[in-house]
Every structure is written in structure tokens, then in C-alpha cells.
Write a structure and sequence with these properties.
The chain is an alpha+beta fold. The protein has 15 helices and 15 strands. The strands form six sheets. Strands 1-2-3-5-4 form a five-stranded antiparallel β-sheet, with helices on both faces. A two-stranded antiparallel ribbon has the order 6-7. Strands 8-11 form a two-stranded antiparallel sheet. It is globular, with a radius of gyration of 23 Å. Keywords: Disulfide bond, Endoplasmic reticulum, Membrane, Signal-anchor, Transmembrane, Transmembrane helix.
Length: 398
């Protein structure tokens, strides 16, 4: 498996040397030898995921398809070649790059195309402020990246929220993402919290380094889950739905921030409605993994609105095991723990994804109990005032 991944990297470097593709990772990968392969994490149907070290920092290298040539070529480059052979001399302007890249992003994410054709603020601003033109290798590499839905999601959202894995660089169709250890359903704590408790980490409250204990890490991580839910529900121009919520798709940074590391099954509201609105004969036909709707039997058509919510599924699959009497042991009978178990159960059983007011009430109740639990565990009664959920009010203006 490792040899197959290495062969791909050698072919990638040949194309880099020939000027076919490029990227800020290519020089270190192909010339300086600053990228060290560790192991293949996934290799099936052309998709490759590899663990590596880039300048001593653990990263994950990803690509949806095996070869650079497997991706659709940018039609405008082929058009320039056909229209007189000037493609090598007359390049696209930065505004052209912004325009066509934005259309591709909107199409991939299922967002409406309006008059405001903007890329994510940092990415698009850099393109528009640049005075230079872009080479064929740069444009072809960008186009290959834009044909990978997960890359688009992570690249768009990392400018807007700290709850997704960060993209660190790219070379052709491969891109490097920060390495974070995923959760596991078989682990009683779901995440390897023991590893995070062994070294000082920045406090989510003060930003200063402090030692966390396993006892207060779980409620803090749970608070970060609630923050992520609020981000995805309110801070973009469309609600973001997570349709595959399981421990393996999340990780925890050292500051105890919850991070979505696999967003293959994440959809903004417009695309979610298209997915859900299918033919049906019963409600079971309207289940799309963790995103479900109801069957209108008068029309034999699934409703376009999601019946459940991100919060309900997180409560069911993550919070309920965390705060179960079995895991809590002797603490399970304490009044605060009993209240929390009831709140989690109510959240997991709540079947009203369209009732935004009720969702907010359920989330606020959980947040209040978790903050109180953190206060109790740390013995710092003043901490609750400081531990407010970090909100970044930014609009995804597509």
C-alpha cells in the first residue's frame, strides 16, 4: 500500500518538473525532500489518504482521484489553445480566475448563483489583489482541487469557523490537511482524552496554558460540540447539515476544540433539500443517513425539510454514551448529573428539526448544565461567566 502511494508521488513530481501542475507543497515534496511519508490511511477507487510529515509537522495528504489527468481539464484553457494556439502566451486574468472558481464552488456546494460572485474572503481577496497572471499549471491545479467536494468545503469553511480541519497546502490535485486523531466508537471516552491531558494546552477560556483533567475535559469538549452546532446552524447564509455524525468524523485539538475532519456528507440547505426531496412510499424511504424527512403519502414524495437536526444526532450518538450512568459510575446519582442525563435524553429524543426555537431552548439548557458541571469540577465558580461560547458572526455570502 505504501509503495503504491509512493509511486503516485513520483509521478506527481514528474508532472511538477514538466510544468503540468504546481502548488506550495510541490517544492518541499519533489525537490527539498521535506515531506516524509508515514503510511497509507486509505486507498480505494482512486481516493488516496496518506499520513505524512511536512517540515516536521504531522499532516494528512488527500486526493479524490488517483492521477492528475483523471480530473476534468479547465475548458477555457482548451478553448484558448483551439482558438489560435495562444493559450501559452495569453493567460486568464485574476478576475477570470475568481469568476470561474466561484461558479464551480457554488455548483459543488449546491448554493444559488446570485449577483455577489465572491470566493471565501481571504482566498478571493488574494486573487483579486494580485497584479500577476496565472500560469497554466496554477490554473490546472486549482481546477483539479475545485473538483473535490471535501477540499472546497474545508477551504471555504476554514476562513469562517475553527471547527473544521485546516488545509495547509497543496501540490496539483493533492492537498495537505492538519493531522488530528479521530474519535472511535469503541472508546468509552470516544476521543483519546488521556493523550490531551498529558501536556499543557491553551485554555478555551483564557488562552493561557493549563493542565486539564479527564474529569473536566468531557464537559468542555461537549461545550465545543454545542458551539459547532450553533456555528453550522446560524453563522452561514444557509444552515449546514451533517449527515454522517459518528466519532470517526470528528477530532479534538489540544485546546479542546471539536473539529470536523470528514465532511464528505455535509450539505448546505439548498443541496440538502434536493437530496431529501425524493419519491417515497413510507418514511423509511426518506432517510438519508443521519438526515431524515417525512413521506407525504398523498404525493408519494419526501419532504424537502429535514425532520431531525445536527444537535439531536450528536446528543444521540455522542452525548448519550458520554453521560450515561454506566460511564459515570458513582457520580451518576448526583443531582447535576441526573439533570444532565435527562437533558441529553430529551435532546436525543427531540424530533423537531424544523422547530428552531425549541432547538435553541434544548441547546441552551444543555449548555447551562455543562457550564455548571465545569464549575463544579474545577471549583472555580467565577469561570462560568468567562466560559461563553465563542461566536464568529460571519456570513457566507454566496
Amino acid at each position: 500500500m505504501l509503495l503504491m502511494c509512493c509511486y503516485v508521488s513520483l509521478f506527481q513530481c514528474d508532472e511538477y518538473q514538466q510544468g503540468v501542475l504546481t502548488g506550495d507543497l510541490c517544492e518541499d515534496l519533489c525537490v527539498a525532500g521535506r515531506v516524509e511519508y508515514k503510511r497509507c490511511l486509505y486507498y480505494e477507487n482512486g481516493k488516496k489518504v496518506m499520513a505524512a510529515s511536512w517540515r516536521g509537522v504531522p499532516v494528512v495528504l488527500k486526493s479524490k482521484l488517483e492521477n492528475f489527468s483523471s480530473y476534468e481539464a479547465l475548458a477555457l484553457l482548451e478553448y484558448q489553445d483551439a482558438a489560435g494556439g495562444m493559450g501559452g502566451e495569453e493567460e486568464l486574468s485574476p478576475l477570470d480566475v475568481v469568476f470561474y472558481a466561484t461558479l464551480e464552488i457554488k455548483n459543488s456546494l449546491g448554493l444559488e448563483t446570485g449577483n455577489n460572485l465572491t470566493l471565501p474572503r481571504l482566498w478571493g481577496q488574494k486573487l483579486k489583489e494580485s497584479e500577476r497572471t496565472y500560469s497554466r499549471a496554477e490554473l490546472a491545479s486549482l481546477w483539479a482541487l475545485l473538483q473535490q467536494e471535501e477540499y472546497i468545503f474545508l477551504r471555504v469553511l476554514q476562513d469562517l469557523t475553527h471547527h473544521v480541519a485546516k488545509i495547509l497546502g497543496s501540490c496539483g490535485h493533492f492537498y495537505a490537511v492538519e493531522y488530528l486523531a479521530a474519535g472511535h466508537a469503541w472508546d468509552q471516552h470516544i476521543f483519546s482524552l488521556e493523550d490531551l491531558s498529558l501536556s499543557p494546552s491553551p485554555s478555551p477560556d483564557s488562552g493561557q496554558d493549563r493542565m486539564f483533567t479527564l474529569r473536566d475535559m468531557v464537559p468542555r469538549v461537549a461545550l465545543s460540540f454545542l458551539e459547532m452546532v450553533e456555528h453550522f446552524e446560524n453563522d452561514f447564509s444557509h444552515r449546514l447539515h451533517l449527515c454522517d455524525i459518528k466519532p470517526e468524523n470528528f477530532a479534538i485539538r489540544k485546546d479542546l476544540t471539536v473539529v470536523a475532519i470528514d465532511v464528505d456528507m455535509a450539505f448546505f440547505e439548498p443541496k440538502m433539500r434536493d437530496i431529501l426531496e425524493q419519491n417515497c412510499t413510507s418514511d423509511n424511504d426518506c432517510n438519508f443517513f443521519d438526515c431524515i424527512s417525512k413521506c407525504d403519502k398523498t404525493k408519494n414524495r419526501c419532504g424537502p425539510n429535514r425532520k431531525n437536526s445536527n444537535l439531536q444526532v450528536i446528543c444521540e450518538k455522542i452525548f448519550r454514551p458520554w453521560f450515561s450512568p454506566t460511564l459515570l459510575g458513582a457520580k451518576a446519582g448526583l443531582p447535576l448529573q441526573v439533570d444532565l442525563q435527562r437533558a441529553v435524553q430529551e435532546c436525543a429524543d427531540f424530533d423537531g428539526g424544523e422547530d428552531g426555537e425549541r432547538r435553541r431552548a434544548v441547546r441552551q439548557q444543555l449548555q447551562a448544565l455543562l457550564v455548571e458541571l465545569v464549575q463544579e469540577d474545577t471549583g472555580n465558580q467565577g469561570e462560568g461567566q468567562e466560559h461563553k461560547m465563542r461566536r464568529v458572526h460571519t456570513a457566507l455570502n454566496f
